[in-house]
Specification:
Length: 448
């Protein structure tokens, strides 16, 4: 008998298994897909190396870098090109550089003179009485509507595929809320936070791996060995006395502990017979659809220098494309010689793409990004990946929902929920949360 059943072999499930095994537990991972990795997928084709889901991760703090060393991935890690500190936003048909500091904001052609004057008054705007303010309401209040329309909205659409009018600031961007909490304004909060920053603390780094991000879950699955069962879609969970039972394709597994490391809607389906109220909470978490489109061009076809991370496209422009990454700039070597790789994103919470065919979406994307980037002709290479349910949305009320979820979990002994629908959507968040699970008092191994 196993000691822990983990359902879901994405990074949350695999990292949970690794950290729990390190603490003495004997876990088994049941993953519907094969190979493991969930939505982390890398693909090599026609000389291009692309990530069709998550495309990079931010390395910060100590937990994740230390884990990479222990699993032997530090030598496979590659850092992003320094040019990626430059990011563009489309305005007036031209990619304009996003400002990266207070003085740059005041000099930026993205904002009007009145918007810049509005920015100077940021420290004097009062705090909101709303304890769960939306991102849009927060930015309008502190920074003004132009900053929302031309900077924050395209960022939120590009990173979270979300609608800033619906996303909770404290759930989605807690560090931004913390700045206001620390100083009463963003400017004073940033100043106080900078002064209090611990000396010698390493700066955050944007990273991937030599063979793409999927190299990470594949390595963890390799280290876990026969504890990982791919192609094993769990159909039902239930209790037998003090044991959890997972059933799939005529097989069953029993253990006193169970971790559901799956999307909220999958966890809801499994939990409905056991706890209807908990399942109902999980069913309310939205996952908009997103399409990633890898586009390979000859270098000579693209006039823009592609000297940055990519180009965000504000929703107010009414275009299909959320944004485009300069993938072969971010991590050089992702395209054949004299070629470039771009990755476009379509869909999200503000743009329902429905069942439109790939060819129509490709035509729209090429038509929209070609003028600002100086692209001539059609791409030599295209790979399209549809995610019917992509990034979970931390909308207003999300933190209260998580509190209700945790209260319900207290009635289900031995059960834990770990996935990117709670406590952070980023890969680094998922790994840190897996480590935190193994450190929790409730998960102290009996033999320890």
């Amino acid at each position: 008998m196993h000691e822990v059943i983990i359902i879901g072999g994405g990074i949350s499930g695999l990292a949970s298994a690794w950290f729990l095994r390190e603490k003495g537990w004997r876990p088994i991972v049941l993953e519907a897909g094969d190979p493991a990795g969930g939505s982390i997928r890398s693909r090599q084709e026609a000389g291009f190396l692309m990530d069709t889901g998550a495309n990079s991760m931010m390395l910060k703090g100590e937990i994740v870098p230390d884990w990479f060393r222990r699993i032997g991935m530090d030598g496979e890690m590659i850092e992003a090109n320094p040019l990626t500190k430059r990011r563009y936003v489309l305005k007036g048909g031209i990619p304009l550089t996003l400002p990266n500091g207070p003085l740059a904001f005041l000099r930026s052609p993205i904002l009007s003179a009145s918007a810049k004057v509005r920015l100077l008054g940021e420290p004097f705007h009062p705090r909101s009485a709303d304890p769960d303010e939306s991102i849009a309401a927060f930015v309008r209040r502190r920074l003004g509507p132009e900053v929302l329309d031309w900077m924050v909205d395209p960022f939120v659409s590009g990173v979270f595929a979300g609608d800033p009018e619906r996303l909770s600031l404290r759930a989605t961007l807690p560090r931004l809320a913390a700045l206001e909490d620390a100083g009463g304004s963003l400017l004073r909060g940033a100043w106080r936070t900078r002064r209090a920053k611990r000396p010698g603390r390493a700066a955050a780094r944007l990273v991937s791996f030599r063979n793409g991000l999927q190299q990470l879950p594949l390595k963890v699955a390799e280290l876990l060995g026969d504890a990982v069962h791919g192609g094993c879609a769990v159909e039902r969970i239930h209790r037998e006395g003090d044991l959890w039972v997972a059933e799939a394709a005529g097989q069953s597994w029993r253990a006193p502990r169970l971790v559901l490391a799956v999307p909220a809607y999958v966890a809801a389906q499994l939990l409905t017979p056991l706890h209807g109220e908990l399942a109902a909470e999980l069913h309310t978490i939205r996952y908009p659809s997103v399409i990633t489109m890898a586009l390979g061009f000859a270098q000579a076809q693209v006039a823009h220098a592609l000297d940055g991370f990519g180009m965000l496209i504000p929703r107010k422009l009414g275009l299909e494309t959320l944004g485009v990454l300069f993938s072969s700039t971010i991590f050089p070597g992702r395209a054949p010689a004299d070629h470039v790789l771009l990755t476009a994103f379509i869909g999200g919470a503000q743009n329902d793409i429905g069942a439109r065919p790939d060819a129509a979406l490709l035509s729209a994307v090429v038509q929209e990004i070609s003028p600002p980037l100086g692209i001539s002709g059609a791409p030599h290479f295209v790979h399209t990946q549809r995610w019917q349910r992509a990034i979970p949305q931390y909308e207003q009320g999300h933190l209260d929902r998580i509190r209700r979820v945790d209260a319900a979990l207290a009635t289900l002994p031995g059960l834990a929920l770990r996935a990117n629908w709670r406590d952070g959507v980023a890969l680094g968040d998922c790994i840190e949360n897996a480590a935190a699970l193994s450190e929790g008092e409730a998960w102290r191994h009996p033999a320890g």
